[in-house]
Here is the input.
Amino acid sequence: MTNTISGSADSITVKLINSISQLEEYSVNGILSSNGTANITFPSTVIGNTYYIVIKQRNTIETWSKNPVSFSSSNTYNFKN
Here is the structure.
């Protein structure tokens, strides 16, 4: 995982939920920056698979991606859109 402490806003947990089984397969803690971005790294075993992305922060409601996301070697997901 890559993050910078400077400009950090809070810690978050990012989970990947298998789109078929609905089971949690990965969970990574990360740092949410003050500009609303976070750099999270998952193992290469996610490549070619489809997951819902779930974000959890201590003072917010757990937020899921609307649709499953197919992972490649480099993904970006924007919850604003």
Summary: Residues 8-70 form one domain. The first strand starts at residue 8 and ends at 18. The radius of gyration is 12 Å.
